[in-house]
Amino acid sequence: MDGSRCAPTDREFRVSDRIASATLRARITDADTAAALIQPGETVGMSGFTGSGYPKAVPQALARRIAGERASGRPFRINLWTGASTGPELDGALAAVDGIAQRLPYSSDPVAREKINRGEIDYLDMHLSQVAPMAWEGVIGTLDTAVIEVSGIRADGSLIPSSSVGNNKTWLDRAKRVILEVNRWQNAALEGAHDIYYGTRLPPQRVPIPLTRPDDRIGTPYLACDPDKVVAVVETDAPDRNLPFAAPDDKALAIAGHIIEFLSHEVKRGRLPASLLPIQSGVGNIANAVLSGLVDAPFEPMTAFTEVIQDGMLDLLDAGKLRMASATAFSLSPAAADRLNANMASYASRMILRPQEISNHPELVRRLGCIAMNGLIEADIYGNVNSTLVMGSRIQNGIGGSGDFARNGYVSIFMTPSTAKDGRISAIVPQVSHVDHIMQDVQVIVTEQGLADLRGLSPRQRASVVIERCAHPSYRPLLADYAARAKGGSYGLHAPSLPGEALSWHQRFMETGTMLPA
Amino acid sequence: MDGSRCAPTDREFRVSDRIASATLRARITDADTAAALIQPGETVGMSGFTGSGYPKAVPQALARRIAGERASGRPFRINLWTGASTGPELDGALAAVDGIAQRLPYSSDPVAREKINRGEIDYLDMHLSQVAPMAWEGVIGTLDTAVIEVSGIRADGSLIPSSSVGNNKTWLDRAKRVILEVNRWQNAALEGAHDIYYGTRLPPQRVPIPLTRPDDRIGTPYLACDPDKVVAVVETDAPDRNLPFAAPDDKALAIAGHIIEFLSHEVKRGRLPASLLPIQSGVGNIANAVLSGLVDAPFEPMTAFTEVIQDGMLDLLDAGKLRMASATAFSLSPAAADRLNANMASYASRMILRPQEISNHPELVRRLGCIAMNGLIEADIYGNVNSTLVMGSRIQNGIGGSGDFARNGYVSIFMTPSTAKDGRISAIVPQVSHVDHIMQDVQVIVTEQGLADLRGLSPRQRASVVIERCAHPSYRPLLADYAARAKGGSYGLHAPSLPGEALSWHQRFMETGTMLPA
User: Fold this and answer.
1) Which of A197, A214, A304, B436 has the fewest CB atoms nearer than 10 Å to its CB?
2) Which residues of A touch B399 (CB under 8 A)?
3) Which residues of chain A have a CB within 8 Å of the CB of B269?
């Protein structure tokens, strides 16, 4: 197909709607043909962030091809790099056929998780802001092929980004070959909402990032792409993953209430402006409940400088409480995605989607003074936080952007229900089994039991407050007993601990199925 | 004394030499009178960073006063804030009389350490870049009195800083009252070497810090100080602490050799410029040995963007290998201090001393792409690093600036001898007893045994390399055995661990005096 015939067919009408470049129209092919261009052992950089904007057709075609090759005794695995999590058509499909050797920087797919935790995929869990710079430094390997979903191709060959930006700029620039998926399902009114900053460099050529408000546009709305590198263009019409959020339960509402009370207190004491500072919120049901809770809070007009725009952010925009949101991707329920798509023109003017190296950049998080709100798996009495490894070894999802925001934010809040597994796991433990956020980076811990403001406290002071305010009553006496005994048997009393017992709750859970003693 | 008499006495000649402001000359008094202005329970911000530029007379006078009050049954303690570590005349003297209730953000004094580890001082161990912003945010308390050593006072009342800058700008701005110590021992030729940046703000007023090279001067050479707040000026003539460095032993030389080989390799592969990127080096004998080793390495002209200028930096400047060094303080041996003072005019033109919020600012460390080189107490097989707590509970010194540089540097190197206490402690353990640097922030680990380049490796891959390259032969089989067994009994195999055994080496050391099994 060369696009030169005079009487357009239906297919060409459809094509010209989203692919304005004649050069790239000529590269249109099917997913199987495109997937055949990827060779065993390659490193493939795909688009996708929190289930948005990931390629849907080529990965599934690649998975079919891998399954066929394996059945013929020809093992076939790739190294898979993305923005963050994708969907079952990508991570799930490729993991199911054992097609992934190495995975970075984040994954939440249940099939892939199981393979990682069986030791069958090498998973590099990275700070999301550091992926693009490290790719440029050349220290995590070389990128062979990029597979990028876009919502359209312009006449000059530049790309209209999809529902996530992630690392797409870097993959397009660094890969030897590019495969594009043009997804008609993505709303055409998204055009113009993106801001792709092309000012990053490797040191010693780095300069300040010229952004001082979440609203600032510092780049262009389009992704640049060398058309000579594009080896295939595949048309799709498929929705993003878009998992539903659970309705907030009592615990989530209690946590949201504690956080709003804390923020109100900070405003009253003059330590936060009445419109707060730009909010950052992790992904998940509790984070979403906190955002929804802010609809009825007295803070306005708020802004968000965050990783993802989830349902609660739309609620805040609808309520006029949130003036605008800067992120790198959407992470919406199907209902919210419908709401977004029905009113995209209105929403798009109040949203900016950026590369994740910018949405999460420590320079910007610190400058803007983000209010960082993230979930956790467990915290210890001193406020060290484990966000990633259940029982210290089993990956749940990954550190994501939590480290980018927690260390550099104006205030760093971590939140969790005080127990999991029907009370058999305490989220507050004597010592975390793995550390993602050191005590210096954890300033506030919130459970449904209460909120611990740890700023300005020494480790021993922190322990008292965490046990008293955050622990579940069924574990509180056990924690207090540990803390008291640690003062007797510890090597030093700066942060008393008993190494022979500190991880015994985890060991007990592994042996008996509960952290509670018999 | 009002400075108005025509025939100057000897004392006035001495005074006018360093105190050009008539207003502030009128506030000259003795240390005991100045110390009497500090009230029990106050929060006092003092100057001082790595044993440089701390007040020497007032703290000792205060300690005498506290001892007297205590003897009379009137307990007297203060909260003590500084830049970083000071000297025996400050931390040591005040700790010895139980005069410190709360201490932040860093301490290395042996007397104070003992009190902290007996639970008698509440110690807040902070990222050094975050102290000034958190003081401005008002979340660590309110500052009553500042006690700041300077090397001179200008006619307009502005201050010529001393041998460290630290948090002096913030203490002078935030304190209700100011006591100045003017130390004649400090070299007058230091004037002009400082660069005090006055552009920091609280969000939402923060803007990019306009520094793109370590050489850039973005402020003024002088500290501003409201003369109305100055309640006392005390003259001193006393040297900084200036502890000698140990001559590098074979292990330090081996570590230096591994690091230089690694950097040479990176230059050859085109991942570092031939002049490297700005180097950052922690304080201590091994760090100093690495710097001295760089004298014979092929990298030039280097720059340093670091916390402190130690002996090895002078060697590099003398050898013409280091073009210039940016830091917040000196940390020199007595011999090097003599060398510096004898040639200050020559050195000062190649040095810039900045506030620690700038010397350590994540924005700048990331922009400049520092090569971060820091020491550690222990690392585990996955590359998590403990820099602060011996056996997980006993503070050694503090995290200092290591977190500022390790997370944001271009490459983050941690170094240590593979054993301590004559082999009874292994620096490589199954699991660290405390975490200061998470595995994502630890890219290279070096011992005298070898160097582990962990970039691009999954946790299981990291474990193999760390055990093989870094562990001492007497612990290597024990670590390999743990890693192998962990693959059998772990909850997940992403980063296999055995919670019931992971900290048993520490427990064994506490019980038997060695990590080696009987």
Assistant:
1) A197
2) 438, 440
3) 138
In this structure, the answer to whether residues A380 and A496 fall within a common structural domain is yes
What's the domain count of chain B? 2
Residue B197 and residue B311 in one domain = no
Percentage of residues in chain A having pLDDT higher than 90: 94
Distance from CA of A384 to the nearest CA of B (A): 9
Q: How far apart are CA A170 and CA A173, in angstroms?
A: 5
B58, B175: one domain = yes
Rounded Cα gap, residues A45 and A58, in angstroms: 12
CB-nearest to B366 from A124, A362, A384 is A362
Residue B16: per-residue pLDDT: 64
A455: which chain B residues are within 8 Å (Cβ-Cβ)?
Answer: 134, 139-140
Domain span at A265: 250-512
Q: Give every CB contact of residue B499 below 8 A, 6+ residues apart in sequence.
A: A391, A392, A433, A503, A504, A506, A507, A510
d(CA A507, CA A505): 5
pLDDT band at A337 (very low <50, low <70, confident <90, very high): very high
Whether residue A304 sits in one domain with residue A231: no
B27 plus B79 within the same structural domain = yes
| Binary contact (B490, A431; C-beta < 8 A) | no
Tens-place pLDDT, residues B143-186: 999 999 999 999 999 999 999 999 999 999 999 999 999 999 99
pTM value?
0.97
Is the same domain home to B485 and B356? Answer: yes
Q: Is the pLDDT of residue A11 over 50?
A: no
Q: How far is A512 from chain B (nearest CA, A)?
A: 13
Q: Is the pLDDT of residue A446 over 80?
A: yes
- Best mutation site among A302, A393, A487 for testing chain B: the one with the most B CBs within 10 Å? A393
In a domain, A4, yes or no: no
List all residues of chain B from 135 to 154 with a beta carbon under 8 Å from chain A: 137-141
- pLDDT attached to residue B8: 43
B393/B377 Cα distance (integer angstroms):
12
C-beta of residue B128 within 8 angstroms of C-beta of residue B307: yes
Is B204 in contact with A273 (Cβ distance < 8 A)?
Answer: yes
Burial class from Cβ neighbours inside 10 Å (0-12, 13-18, 19+) for residue A422 reads: exposed
Final residue before a domain boundary, out of A212, A236, A260? A236
Query: What backbone phi and psi angles, to 5 degrees, belong to B217?
Result: -100, 125
Q: Domain with A139 in it: what CATH number?
A: 3.40.1080.10
**Mean pLDDT score of chain B, rounded to an integer?**
95
Q: What was the pLDDT predicted at B13? A: 47
Q: Does A431 touch chain B (CB under 8 A)?
A: yes
Distance from CA of B387 to the nearest CA of A (A): 12
